[in-house]
Structures are given as C-alpha cells and as structure tokens.
Design brief:
This protein is an alpha/beta fold. It contains 13 helices and 10 strands. The strands form 2 sheets. An 8-stranded mixed β-sheet has the order 1-4-3-2-5-8-6-9, with helices on both faces. Helix 2 runs parallel beside helix 3, helix 11 packs antiparallel against helix 12 and helix 12 packs antiparallel against helix 13.
Length: about 475
C-alpha cells in the first residue's frame, strides 16, 4: 500500500520556473502518457522546454528526485532541506523531491510529513514493504516528470554533480545517467574495505555480464521517464540489485548511459548490511546472466527504439553505417579465418583437402553469419534468424566454389602441393571470398533500412507559452 501525503505547497513543484500541466498528463506512467503507444517502441528523444516564465499554479516538474529512506529520523530533515535549497538555487526548471519511506518504524513518517508541509515541492510517499528498488519502481512509475532521479538520503555525493547528471537527459542526448565513484577524476573518501568490495563487485559485473559502466551501486542516478516505462517492467529485483539490473538491461538494449565523476564521502553511519547485500547482488548477477544467456529477456523490443541514434542518421554521400560495419565485419572475418584454418588443419588429419575445406567452411560460415548478424549489422532477436542463416549458406556456397576451385586449380598445376602451399592458396582465396561475402551480406542478407520519420507523437510538449516580457521575474 502506498499513501501520499500530497504536495502541501499546492502544486507540488518548485524551482525557478513553474509550468501548467497539460491535459491528461497528471496520471504519469499510469495514465494516458504511456498506454496509447505501441509496446516496445519508445518516442524519440525530445528536448525539454527552454527556460521560460510560466504560471505558478498546477506546475508539472521537469525533475522528480526520489530519496528512499528507512528509519532516517535523524538525517532526513537536514538532508532534504539541503537538497531543496541546492535545487532552488541552481536548477532552472520546476522540480519535485519525493521522500519514499520503506516501511520505517521510527518517527521518519512524521519528519517527512513535516517536510512536505514546510517546503514547497516536497512530497511524502509511504510504502508498507522494504526495498530500495521497490520504492524507486513505485514512485517512478507514477511520476509525471520527464526526468526521474534518486539519491541516498545521506547525500554522500556532492550535489554539484546533480545538474551535470540530469543535463544530458533534459537535452535528449542520453537515456540514463549515473554518478561514478570509480572514474579517474572522481574524488572519494571511504575505507579500504568498502573500496575493495566496490571495485570487486564492478569487476564481477564486467567479467560476467560484460558491463560497460564503471559504477553500478553509487546512489546517484537518473533516467528519462519514457525509458523507465519500458525498462521497469523487465526489472525483477526490488532491493539493492535493482540498480545493477536496470543498468545491465539498458546497456544490452543499446540505450545510452551517461557517467558523471563525483566527489563522494562515505557515511560512517550507513545502515547497509554489506555481507547480506553482496550475497543478494551475486544471486542477482547469476539470475540476470542466465536469463541473458538463454535469451529469456525480450531486449530486441528495446533495441535502438528512440529513432535518434547517431548510427541511424543518413550522411550525404555516405551509406549509413558503412564504416562501423566494415570494422565489425573485419573483426568477425579475422576471427572466422583463424577458426576456419584451425578447423581445416584438424579435419585434414583424417580426410582429403576438399572434404576438409568443405567441412571447415560450413562450420565457420554458420558461426560467421551469426556473429555478423549481431555484431556487424546490429540485428537482435530471433526474428528472421533462420532466413538469415539460409541466405548465409548461399553465400557460403559461393565461397566454397571459390576456394574449392582454387584448390582444384592448384592440384592441376602442381600435382601434389605441400600443406603450406595449400594454406597459402586458401588464405588468398578466402580473403577474396570474404570481400564478396561482405558485399552480399550487406546488400542481400542484411540490407539497410531507409531512415523514416517516426510514427509516434512526441511524448513531451512545452507546458507554457514563450515569454513575451524579457524583464519578467522568475516565479518561485
């Protein structure tokens, strides 16, 4: 059950600007904002409105900062007051601070209610079950703000990093943003034990889940609402692993994650149980890794869904994605050639050159098509996979004819060539077949789709009229 002490200040948002709510927007994720769109297709990244004076009533915040708490009666008031003051001074848009209470048993609810009455734009949400992930899921799913963020109540992260954190989301450049304590320019003060655990955990993520982000557990993150609407239903964890699972899924779906180096001072009074949290995190790593390995997650529905990926932009006089595809194809081709030569040498121990060549080509061709499908041409999911492999086998047959013809010509010319001579001829023929394979894969098997205009309505529209008076004052 969730209770909301409402926004005691009236509109529930504040900042240097306010804005009038658009009809039908108040429902947030649960209203019309997300129900009418085709599942799996996110709207294009939209720039949020520029700084302009707006009406003070019925304001819709641009940023909703969630502060999850559990039994924080001592630190809650000074931390929220400090956060509110920082946003009021530095953030140029309407904002909201949401205190998400994870079933506290002390006087935290009373403190939070008092804060909601004292500070404009602060609200209190009560959950009857514990779990940071559960709190974030609940508040983010119901929020009407285009940009959603959260931070730990201890404010260990210096607040000067908040605007750099959310700016790429407001501009539409990125989909998620995280603070990183492990970036080279970060300045961190914490004990050796926590430093070791943090680095070891992120090393596990990089080695087991191929994570590309540097810091999964820093309590300082933000996400665009339309991204959260699609990702949150796929995240199972409701505790501390929530952050990691969200980031891994976002990265695997091809979304853009912005990292901000932070200044961070460890809270010596932290209530986090390190051993229990680490155990749950490792269980989560195993669960997500297994799901990714067997293809249980429908990430293909989220792959490059925004229509604003630079890789999808057509350039005058340059075929889209050619340079990137060439690099990927060359990498896959080099590995495939080594794989093919190893197989040929292995098969040659028991069979003749033609049979060895055919078997090695067949096995390597299947692996080559699968690798190029995913890595070179960016095709995800199982749709069309059988057709692609069938077309790949046709390309393989052409390569087989080329390499087999080379072997036949060599045999006719020299009678009984040495094994080294065979390999040299095959390398030359295979390189020629590789060039032909790329051309066929690009033009026939995985043809480029022409760029088209998105078939969706913009998810965020300016909620205010342009300023007609350049000397008008900010509305607070």
């Amino acid at each position: 059950m969730t209770t909301d002490s409402s926004l005691r200040s009236g509109p529930g948002t504040t900042g240097r600007r306010s804005s009038s709510s658009r009809d039908g927007r108040a429902g947030g994720a649960g209203g019309d904002g997300g129900g009418g769109r085709v599942h799996g297709h996110l709207p294009g990244r939209e720039h949020l409105p520029a700084r302009q004076p707006v009406a003070a009533a019925s304001a819709v915040p641009v940023l909703d900062v969630v502060v999850p708490v559990y039994n924080e009666e001592k630190d809650l008031h000074p931390c929220v007051v400090r956060l509110h003051g920082h946003l009021a001074r530095t953030f140029p848009y309407p904002f909201r601070i949401t205190v998400a209470d994870n079933a506290s048993t002390d006087s935290t609810p009373a403190v939070a209610v008092a804060l909601a009455a004292e500070l404009p734009g602060v609200r209190y949400v009560r959950l009857e079950e514990k779990g940071r992930g559960r709190a974030l899921r609940t508040v983010w799913s119901a929020s009407d703000a285009p940009v959603l963020a959260y931070m730990d109540v201890d404010l260990s992260t210096d607040l000067n990093a908040l605007l750099p954190l959310v700016a790429p989301l407001i501009s539409g450049h990125s989909d998620l943003a995280i603070g990183s304590r492990l970036a080279r320019s970060s300045r961190v003060v914490r004990g050796t034990k926590r430093e070791f655990i943090s680095r070891a955990y992120n090393l596990i993520l990089r080695s087991s889940l191929a994570a590309g982000f540097s810091d999964a557990q820093c309590g300082f993150k933000a996400i665009r609402r339309e991204v959260a609407e699609r990702l949150l239903p796929m995240v199972e964890d409701s505790g501390w692993f929530f952050d990691t699972e969200l980031l891994v899924l976002a990265e695997r779906a091809g979304l853009r994650i912005h990292e901000v180096p932070v200044d961070w001072i460890d809270d010596p009074d932290s209530t986090v149980h390190i051993v229990r949290t680490a155990t749950e995190d490792l269980k989560g790593v195993w669960r997500v890794g297994r799901a990714l390995a067997v293809g249980a997650l429908p990430l293909d529905r989220l792959a490059r869904p925004f229509g604003d990926d630079p890789r999808d932009r057509a350039l005058t006089g340059v075929e889209r994605g050619l340079a990137r595809q060439l690099i990927g194809f060359c990498a896959v081709g080099a590995l495939s050639t080594l794989f093919y030569l190893a197989l040929y040498s292995l098969f040659r121990l028991g069979v003749g050159p033609q049979v060895a060549n055919g078997g090695a080509l067949l096995v390597s061709a299947v692996a080559n098509t699968a690798a190029n499908r995913r890595l070179t041409f960016g095709v995800r999911g199982r749709s069309g996979a059988v057709r692609h492999q069938a077309q790949g086998l046709v390309v393989f047959a052409i390569g087989l004819a080329l390499t087999s013809g080379s072997l036949a010509a060599l045999g006719a010319a020299s009678g009984s060539p040495s094994h080294g001579t065979e390999l040299a001829v095959l390398i030359t023929a295979n390189l020629a077949a590789t060039v032909l394979r790329f051309l066929l894969l690009r033009a026939w098997v995985f043809p480029s789709r022409a760029c088209s205009e998105p078939d969706f309505e913009p998810d965020f529209e300016p909620d205010f009229e342009p300023d007609s008076d350049p000397d008008s004052e900010d509305v607070r």
